[in-house]
Design goal:
The complex is a heterotrimer of chains A (about 150), B (about 325) and C (about 350).
Chain A (H helix, E strand, L loop, with lengths): L7 E6 L6 H9 L5 E6 L7 H9 L4 E7 L9 H18 L7 E6 L6 H16 L19
Parallel strand pairs in A: 1-2, 1-3, 3-4
Chain B lengths: L2 H15 L5 E6 L8 E5 L8 E2 L21 E5 L1 H12 L8 E5 L8 H8 L3 E7 L2 E6 L3 E5 H4 L2 H4 L11 E2 L9 H12 L3 H12 L7 H5 L24 H14 L9 H5 L7 H15 L25 E2 L3
Chain C lengths: L1 E5 L3 H11 L1 E8 L2 E6 L26 E8 L4 E3 L8 E6 L1 H14 L7 H8 L1 E6 L25 E5 L3 E6 L2 H6 L8 H16 L10 H7 L5 H8 L5 H4 L7 E6 L4 E6 L20 H20 L9 H5 L6 H10 L9
Parallel strand pairs in C: 2-6, 6-7, 7-8
Antiparallel strand pairs in C: 1-9, 2-3, 4-5, 4-11, 8-9, 10-11
Helix pairs in contact in C: 6-9, 7-9
The chains are: A alpha/beta (about 150), B alpha/beta (about 325), C alpha/beta (about 350).
Chain lengths: ~150, ~325, ~350
């Protein structure tokens, strides 16, 4: 077990957790290393959101949404699939491993699955180690590079 | 004046004098010997300044979005510019009926940077003669073959011929080899993760955020770019590593399925940053996943503007 | 004072300097000249007719710089303590050094000095190398400078074949060359003739008589629209300019820092106001601003042009907008033709 747990940005579509217990757990009992961003639909997730999470120091990004034909807004999740899948592989192309960006589609029967998925994702991230490939927003050294 | 220039001028003169267009967008000779300037001709007697040669490095489709839809524009287009125009028409940035495209099969753009690197800064004039190019500098005269001076994007060019021009001037050129672009990107994809990352960081770290790549690109026509947003702020504003990387990542990604690989961004960059390795990769992905090539017609929506239920599930995990 | 430094002795001189301070000198990397830290054995680009691509103003006015950090919880501000080591910039061209002298009138005034600029300026020694053969894009003599201009420099080198003639202008410049043999009369004579020859090689690029007044009179001309038509609106001309100093102060709220970044009048958001109103709404006003600032407002401010003729904007403009040609066109625009907007 690593001393510092991996930082995870969790983007959650507010309609995808069907069980109130799961939603309550996400809303109130998430471990500190998981940063929750609730969105009205995965279709709302601009690639910029993911980039911001990555540049904010996320070691991994997990996106939870509804199954293809179960989108509250009919096809927001399909739009998200096209863009975000490509964005994930684009980040991989420039050095942020594909495995660090994970999509999870949840269904009615998936009670309790979110905890298992998060745990599995964290294990994956622990194997990969902290993300260091892309620059993060960090206090810059004072002034120019020539001082 | 070359034969081709005579033909372009004659065509521009016809369009203007018969009032078929309000403005002809082409290039004119300016004082800078390596940079013919995008020019806007509204009068027949101005057309004596019109030039066309291998140094015309800008993508003229860039100027399409500066005009209202009602403006009837005559535009000199090469293969890439024609496809940029098509892509802009798909995105409803202009009405195709209000455009007259004067198509020119393209011999490829000469890379002014490469010329300067080979001959020194003091270039006085460049003479093109078919496949040979003669560069006169203050001190010397150099002879090159056209191929060795071509801009890298033009070396990999797939469609040098305008595909939907209204008037076609000059001989059609053979189509390019699609493997060239693919080989370059695959070579990069086959590097290790660390090597790809090092390559990206190396290119991004020279950025001075002048946004010449954005301004030179016909597809970057947003009224407000994401880097100009202040509330919320999407990326760091300065030349910090995170800020520069955010710019390169998002600029390229916004071009997915929209970039025609014309290379105008690289030709404009003052710091010689390679950028097409990002956009070409995204374009190839679009070709492979959705069989979509940018600007081949004026109706097909780019992949990110449309969706289907049976898209390939790439990295999505489903219930066990 | 004038000294003679044989070219063979340059390496030893630089080595001695490098023991006491950071030394930067023009070297080729990524295919173009840049000021990089000098190390023994590196190849210097001193003969090339052209200049470094990125202007050395960045040594004194970094493109991005943290002015202060804040802590929102404790309600505290903290200004960073500047730790600037002594630096020698060797091989700076006279146009770029002249630009530093111009910027001193902005950032190092008696009444309102900029502490960040001043701290760096005090630690920076500028040793120039004059231009025996100015490039075709150079026009320093047209704007009141010259290929061997002294302004802003602590010392200047003149290439006289086997050796350099070193002329010093300040005490700290003088101190760097103590121990070198004094120049002989014929060295100086040779240098003067090289300097005159270089200067004579540059023909006036545009008329400067009455330029300010004329520009003021054609403020409302349609000429600016003509330039703006082809202008891309990128920041190349201003970011590569050695005298452009506009900056924007931004709060990087996500990392609790107040940052100063270079800004450019060519950007739409440069003069955009919070209300949404933009006094320079189109590229025409913005291209006009660039020229007016350099050739009119600078005269009001310091009685000098805000341009030193380095030619970077001419070389790197992606649409070939040559500032010399623009000024010639401006001069040819009759002042009575005033277009009401």
């Amino acid at each position: 077990m690593n001393a510092t747990p991996m930082k995870v940005a969790l983007f959650q579509c507010r309609w995808c957790l069907y069980s109130p217990e799961d939603q309550a757990w996400v809303d109130h009992n998430l471990p500190e290393n998981i940063h929750l961003v609730k969105v009205p639909c995965t279709g709302r997730i601009d690639p910029l959101f993911i980039l911001n999470a990555v540049q904010g120091g996320a070691d991994g990004v997990m996106i939870n949404g509804c199954l293809p034909e179960k989108c509250h807004f009919k096809e927001g999740n399909l739009a998200a699939r096209r863009q975000l899948a490509e964005f994930g592989s684009f980040l991989d192309y420039i050095g942020y491993e594909q495995a660090r960006v994970r999509f999870v589609w949840l269904d009615l029967q998936d009670r309790g699955r979110i905890q298992r998925e998060l745990a599995a994702f964290e294990r994956t991230l622990e194997q990969l180690g902290p993300a260091q490939a892309l620059a993060t927003r960090a206090p810059a050294a004072t002034g120019g590079t020539h001082d | 004046m070359t034969e081709l220039e005579t033909k372009i001028r004659a065509e521009a003169e016809r369009l203007l004098s018969e009032h078929l267009v309000d403005v002809v967008v082409a290039f004119r000779k300016e004082d800078a010997p390596l940079h013919p300037q995008p020019a806007f001709f509204t009068q027949v007697d101005e057309l004596q300044d019109l030039v066309y040669n291998g140094l015309c490095a800008n993508n003229l489709a860039n100027y399409l979005t500066r005009h209202p839809q009602e403006t009837r524009i005559g535009m000199v287009v090469r293969g890439c510019e024609n496809r940029s125009v098509n892509a802009l028409v798909v995105e409803k940035q202009h009405t195709r009926e209000n455009l007259v495209l004067i198509g020119i099969p393209c011999e490829g753009i000469l890379d002014w940077r490469h010329i300067v690197a080979l001959t020194g800064e003091n270039v006085l004039s460049v003479e093109e003669n078919g496949e040979s190019v003669c560069v006169h500098t203050r001190e010397n005269t150099f002879a090159f073959s056209r191929v060795e001076l071509l801009h890298p994007s033009c070396q990999r060019c797939l469609h040098p011929n305008p595909i939907s021009a209204d008037v076609l001037l000059g001989e059609l050129k053979p189509e390019g080899d699609p493997e060239l672009m693919r080989l370059r990107i695959e070579a990069l994809e086959n590097l290790t993760l660390e090597e790809r990352n090092a390559w990206f960081r190396h290119e991004a770290e020279r950025c001075i955020r002048c946004y010449a790549c954005r301004e030179a690109c016909p597809m970057c026509y947003c009224t407000e770019c994401f880097v100009d947003h202040t509330e919320p702020r999407w990326s760091e504003s300065g030349v910090t590593p995170a800020g520069m990387q955010a710019w390169h990542i998002v600029r390229a990604f916004h071009q997915t399925g929209r970039c025609t690989s014309c290379g105008a961004c690289e030709r404009a960059c003052p710091m010689d940053i390679q950028m097409t390795y990002l956009t070409d990769k995204l374009n190839l992905d679009m070709i492979d996943a959705y069989q979509f090539e940018v600007g081949m017609d004026t109706t097909t929506q780019p992949p990110f503007a449309t969706l289907t239920l049976d898209d390939k599930n790439r990295f999505i995990t489903r219930g066990k | 004072m004038a000294y003679r430094l044989p070219k063979k002795g340059l390496d030893q001189t630089l080595r001695a300097w490098a023991e006491q301070s950071k030394v930067f000198a023009p070297q080729k990397r990524e295919g173009y000249a840049q000021f990089l830290p000098w190390k023994a054995g590196v190849e210097l680009l001193l003969d090339e007719p052209h200049n470094t691509r990125f202007p050395p103003k960045a040594f004194l006015l970094p493109q991005s710089e943290t002015l202060l950090t804040y802590n929102r919880k404790l309600n505290q501000l903290e200004t960073p303590t500047l730790q600037i080591s002594p630096r020698i910039i060797f091989g700076i061209r006279p146009c770029d050094a002249h630009a530093v002298a111009l910027l001193d009138t902005v950032f190092a005034t008696q009444e309102n000095p900029d502490p960040y600029w001043r701290a760096r300026r005090e630690q920076t020694i500028l040793i120039g190398v004059g231009c025996n053969q100015p490039a075709t894009t150079c026009f320093c003599t047209s704007v009141g400078s010259s290929p061997f201009d002294h302004a802003g420099l602590d010392a200047i080198f003149t290439d006289i074949g086997e050796a350099y003639l070193v002329e010093t202008f300040t005490e700290r410049g003088e101190a760097l060359f103590a121990g070198l043999p004094q120049a002989e009369a014929n060295d100086e004579g040779q240098a003067r003739s090289i300097q005159q020859q270089a200067e004579a090689g540059l023909t006036p690029a545009f008329a400067t008589d009455n330029l300010k007044d004329h520009l003021d009179q054609i403020f409302d001309s349609s000429l600016w629209n003509e330039f703006a038509q082809s202008c891309l609106g990128c920041g190349i001309c201003t970011f590569l300019c050695p005298t452009c100093f506009c900056f924007d102060i931004v709060d990087e709220a996500q990392r609790d820092e107040r940052v100063r970044n270079w800004d450019t009048c060519m950007f739409r958001i440069y003069s955009l106001e919070a209300s949404g109103h933009n006094p320079r709404p189109s590229r025409a006003e913005r291209t006009r601003q660039r020229l007016m600032h350099k050739f009119s407002y600078w005269i009001e401010h310091a009685n000098q042009f805000g341009c030193t003729g380095c030619g970077r904007c001419v070389r790197y403009c992606p649409v070939g907008l040559d500032i010399r040609a623009m000024l010639r066109k401006a001069a040819a625009t009759p002042s009575e033709v005033v277009h009401a907007n």
